[in-house]
Structures are given as C-alpha cells and as structure tokens.
C-alpha cells in the first residue's frame, strides 16, 4: 500500500471530547452540564441515548491511552468537562475532577503522546446556562477564569492549547435551533451567543498567555458553501449562509472585525475585537462535508438534508450535495472540499497562522473491518497534501475520532472511531482503520 507522505514534523493525532467519552456523570463531585439536562428530555437524542456512562473513559483512560499511543499517534486532542472541574462554572475547584485530567496528562506523556486539550467543547455547566448561558457576557469571563485554573494546574506539562471548539455549531444547533443542548430555538436572536463565545476565546488566549502557554489555537468548523445554481437569489442565499457559518466566526479572530452588516447586530463593546483577534500560533479546521444552498422554494421539503433541519422562514435552504458516496450518517464524501476550504482560508486571511486539521472523519457502522473509513481517511489526507502543494501551511491532521463514542443528538448509532467500542460490554477493539493509521504514521519520512 502506498501512503500519502508529509514533511518531517507533520503531526498526526486522534481526537475526542469530554462529554462524548467520559461518562461518570455524577461521580467525584461533578456538577450537571447542559448535555445532562438536554439528554434527559424525551425525544432529544436518537434511541434515548445519553452520556451518563458514554464509553466510560473516566475509568478506562489508561487503556484508551495505550491504544492511542500504540498507533504511533503524536498528539491526542481531548477536552475538559467544565462542570467536572468547576461544578457550577465558577467558584471552588472540584479537586477530584481536576485530578482526573492531571492523571490523563501524565498517562499521555508517559506514552510519548502530546496532550492537546480543548478548554470548551460544548460542556457548559447547567448553573451558567440557568444564569443566561452564552447569551450572557459573564459566561465569557467565567470561561477565561476556567482556562486560568487549568493552566495553573497543568501548564507545567501541557504546552499546546485549544480554546473553544466549533463556536458556529454551538450557536446554530444549540441556541438558534433546538437540535443540541441547550436547545433554545432563538433563530437570529442567538447572534449574541456568537460574540460571547468569540470574546471567551480572546479572553482565554489572554489567560493562557499569562500562564506561559507555548502554543494556543482555536478549532473552527469550516466547509465550502456553493449555490445550487447561478441564479442571483441562490448565490445570495449561499453567500449569507457562508457568512453566518464560516466568516462570522473566522473574520473577528483572523481579521479583527465582523463581516459587513453583522457587527451592528452584536453586543460589541470597546476593546472586544482587539481581544478576540489576539495572535494565534495555529488555526484549527474541522471539516466533514461541503454544503449546497438555494433560496427557499415554497413547494420543496428541505428536511433531512443536513444533520439538523433549517426551519422554514430562513432566507436559505440546503439541498443535497452531489456525491458518488455518502457516509452512514448520510454525509457527502467530498475530499476536494477540504482542499478548497484550506486554500480559501489561505487566500482570505493574509496573516493566517499555520493550519491544523483538528477534526476529520466519518461514521461507518462496520464493527472492525472498516475499509470504507480507510478509503475516506486516505482520500482526505491526499486532499490535505493537495492544499499544501497549493501553498496552504498545514502542520497536522487529527482523526475524529479515536474511539466510537456518544455522537451528540445521534446517540451511539453513528460510529466514528478508529477503535470499536462494544455498546454492551464497552470492550475496545482496534479496527482496520486503526492499523492503517499506525502504518501511515510509520511510513512518514523522519527528520
């Protein structure tokens, strides 16, 4: 087998997030989070699944780290459960909760794996949500204080940090719609959520720098958006959708300002944009599939096109992306879209820091013989290499995900892992894709 090859120093990683893997929802002083509340509501998650146990990474982390390390993985991207460390989001630290991450970091380092933690991956303490959640500016300052707590305890061993994950998804799915926690359904009234998360990012960068962090970045979801036709109304609808999902979040971080027409709708105060645009050491890109948009037609049913349904009355509507193949989640497999978004970022932002693909992967439900995942990963890594050949400065690639886990509103039915987790016994089994990833890493040139 011929593997795509990358320059010496290119980093290969695996990724997970706290709520999706840890379980132990009520152990050792952990407080309730918004996903604990959301999944307790009937009908919110496929098959009534929840993350109370998840895949029990909280108790099985040593076994999981051994699997991750045995593949030769350079980096492990994980996230912190905010309510595990600060049960109400602020106030005294829950020592057993922080101790867990201390043990996890030490376990990774003992196996030669670099920890790359994400401070916030959608696991907001319920107490903060009750006080307004991301609609409240106070939440941004609370996250910065959380970052300082983490850096104070772990900064002697953790040198690479990610502030927030996919602010666009938290805004759209959790606050504009009702598909993810906290399920507010506010439509365009959710826009302040975007600004407060961006402010939290900037404040967290400041806190991490003050604690001596060597490398700081953010993980953003990005995808090409194309109009369904050349008609003016379809082009305008696609441009608006791209602005709201891509550039509303990237422009403030990488340009220091919001896209035209949006700044006046956001609760921006003096100094906010300077804080948000603090220089970064890398910019993380999460890519899964492109999106195709048209101006809504009154006679069409747009349900089931995206992972979440865009409600009627919006000025844009999704249509299926033409694709020869789809994942078991129904997502279009378009590796060239990753090349496109990486080069688009390079062209749009002259001062763009180095890029890392912080998530890329697919749901295929085969337990172990997952040749389709191997083909998917191989094609997307070749797409990264194409972007690099075109001038994009990409320094790493992380597979989503290390293990099968709780896939948010889709529950346990969707399987993204390189390592199979039996839903009944929680036994771990390395899939064919794990072995392929190990061999890929071993084939890379050495410096």
Largest sheet: 8 strands, parallel, barrel
Shape: globular
Proportion of residues in helical segments: 25-40%
**How much of the sequence is in beta strands?**
5-15%
Low-confidence stretches: none
**Name of the CATH homologous superfamily:** Glycosidases
Q: At CATH's second level, what is the architecture? A: Alpha-Beta Barrel
Number of strands: 13
Write down the Rg: 20 Å
CA-to-CA gap between the ends? 22 Å
CATH topology: TIM Barrel
CATH class: Alpha Beta
**Class based on secondary structure composition and strand pairing:** alpha/beta
> What number of domains?
1
- Physical arrangement of strands within the biggest beta sheet: 1-2-3-4-5-7-10-11
| Mean pLDDT across residues | 97
GO molecular function: beta-glucosidase activity
Enzyme class: hydrolase
InterPro entries: GH (IPR017853), GH_1_N_CS (IPR033132), Glyco_hydro_1 (IPR001360), Glyco_hydro_1_AS (IPR018120), Glyco_hydro_1_beta-glucosidase (IPR017736)
Organism: Catenuloplanes niger
Give a short synopsis of this structure.
With 447 residues, this protein is α/β, with parallel strands linked by helices. The protein has helices at residues 18-21, 34-39, 57-70, 82-85, 95-110, 126-130, 137-154, 167-176, 191-210, 232-254, 272-276, 336-348, 371-389, 432-442; strands spanning 11-15, 75-79, 114-120, 160-165, 215-221, 225-227, 282-286, 291-294, 317-319, 355-360, 394-400, 419-421, 428-430. It has one domain (11-442): Alpha-Beta Barrel (TIM Barrel).
């Amino acid at each position: 087998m011929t593997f795509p090859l990358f320059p010496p120093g290119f980093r290969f990683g695996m990724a997970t997030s706290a709520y999706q893997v840890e379980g132990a929802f009520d152990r050792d002083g952990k407080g309730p989070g918004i996903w604990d509340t959301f999944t307790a509501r009937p009908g919110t998650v496929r098959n009534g699944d929840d993350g109370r146990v998840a895949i029990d990474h909280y108790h099985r982390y040593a076994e999981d780290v051994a699997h991750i390390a045995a593949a030769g993985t350079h980096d492990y991207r994980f996230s912190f459960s905010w309510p595990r460390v600060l049960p109400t989001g602020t106030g005294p630290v829950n020592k057993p909760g922080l101790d867990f991450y201390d043990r996890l970091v030490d376990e990774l380092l003992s196996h030669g794996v670099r920890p790359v933690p994400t401070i916030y991956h959608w696991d907001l303490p319920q107490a903060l949500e009750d006080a307004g959640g991301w609609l409240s500016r106070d939440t941004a300052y609370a996250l910065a204080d959380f970052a300082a707590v983490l850096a104070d305890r772990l900064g002697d061993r953790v040198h690479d940090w990610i502030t927030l994950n996919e602010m666009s998804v938290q805004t759209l799915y959790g606050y504009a719609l009702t598909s993810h926690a906290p399920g507010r359904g506010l439509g365009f009234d959710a826009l302040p959520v975007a600004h407060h998360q961006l402010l939290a990012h900037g404040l967290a960068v400041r806190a991490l720098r003050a604690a001596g962090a060597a490398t700081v970045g953010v993980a953003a979801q990005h995808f090409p958006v194309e109009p369904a036709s050349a008609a003016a109304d379809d082009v305008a609808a696609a441009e608006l959708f791209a602005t709201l999902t891509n550039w509303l979040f990237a422009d403030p971080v990488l340009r220091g300002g919001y896209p035209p027409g949006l700044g006046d709708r956001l609760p921006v105060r003096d100094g906010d944009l300077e804080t948000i645009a603090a220089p970064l050491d890398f910019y993380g890109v999460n890519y899964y599939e492109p999106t195709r948009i048209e101006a809504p037609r009154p006679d069409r049913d747009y349900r089931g096109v995206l992972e979440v349904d865009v409600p009627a009355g919006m000025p844009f509507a999704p249509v299926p992306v033409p694709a020869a193949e789809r994942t078991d989640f129904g997502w279009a497999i378009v590796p060239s879209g990753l090349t496109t978004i990486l080069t688009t970022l390079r062209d749009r932002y002259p001062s763009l820091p180095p890029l890392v693909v912080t998530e890329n992967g697919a749901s295929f439900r085969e337990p172990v013989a997952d040749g389709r995942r191997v083909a998917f990963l191989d094609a997307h890594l070749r797409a990264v290499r194409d972007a690099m050949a075109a001038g994009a400065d990409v320094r790493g690639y992380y597979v989503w995900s290390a293990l099968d886990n709780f896939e948010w509103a889709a529950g346990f039915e969707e399987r993204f892992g390189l390592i199979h987790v039996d839903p009944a016994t929680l036994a771990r089994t390395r899939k064919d894709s794990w072995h392929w990833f190990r061999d890929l890493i071993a084939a890379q040139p050495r410096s």
